[in-house]
Write a structure and sequence with these properties.
It is a single chain. β5 and β6 form a beta hairpin. 17% of the residues lie in helices and 41% in strands. It has two helices and six strands; from the N terminus they run αββαββββ. The longest helix has 17 residues. With 145 residues, it is of the alpha+beta class. The chain has one domain: Hotdog Thioesterase (Thiol Ester Dehydrase, Chain A, Roll), CATH 3.10.129.10. The radius of gyration is 14 Å and the shape is globular.
Length: 145
C-alpha cells in the first residue's frame, strides 16, 4: 500500500501530467528522504519519438523523476510547504541500464545536505532491484509563481 497517492503528491509538488513522473510515494521522512514508484507504460508521450521501434525512457526524465521524489521529501517539511524545489545542478549522473515500457522504476532520493533554501540529494533509480541511474542533485527552494 502506498504512503502517498498521485493526488497527494500533487498536493506537495506543482508538477502535473504529462510531466508528473512519480505515481506513488512508498516511504517518506520529511526533509530527509523519500522513495517512490513510476510504472513505465507504452502510453508515455515521449515513446512516440524516443525511439520508434525501441522505446527507451529518456535518462533526463529518470533524473527528473528522482528530483520529484526529492522535492516531495524536502517540501514535506512545514518550513517549505507550498513552495517549489528548482534544479540547481545535476552532478555525477550515471546511467547503468535502459528503462523500457513494462518496467517499474523504484526511485530513492536522500537529502544529504541543506543550507537555507539550497540542498543536495543523493538519488538512485532501480529496475528489478538493479541500479539503473544514480546522480547527485542540487536544488533550490523558492516561492511558487
Amino acid at each position: 500500500m502506498s504512503l502517498l497517492t498521485t493526488k497527494e503528491i500533487m498536493d506537495i509538488i506543482p508538477h502535473r501530467q504529462p510531466f508528473l513522473l512519480v505515481d506513488t510515494i512508498e516511504e517518506l521522512e520529511p526533509g530527509k528522504r523519500a522513495a517512490g514508484r513510476k510504472c513505465v507504460t507504452y502510453n508515455e508521450p515521449y515513446f512516440a519519438g524516443h525511439f520508434p521501434g525501441e522505446p527507451v525512457m529518456p535518462g533526463v526524465l529518470i533524473v527528473e523523476a528522482l528530483a520529484q521524489v526529492g522535492a516531495v521529501a524536502i517540501l514535506s517539511q512545514p518550513d517549505f510547504k507550498g513552495k517549489t524545489a528548482y534544479f540547481g545542478a545535476i552532478n555525477s549522473a550515471r546511467f547503468k541500464q535502459k528503462v523500457v515500457p513494462g518496467n517499474v522504476l523504484v526511485l530513492e532520493t536522500e537529502i544529504i545536505k541543506v543550507k537555507g533554501p539550497v540542498g543536495i540529494g543523493s538519488a538512485k533509480a532501480y529496475v528489478d532491484g538493479k541500479l539503473a541511474v544514480q546522480a547527485e542533485l542540487t536544488f533550490a527552494v523558492g516561492e511558487r509563481a
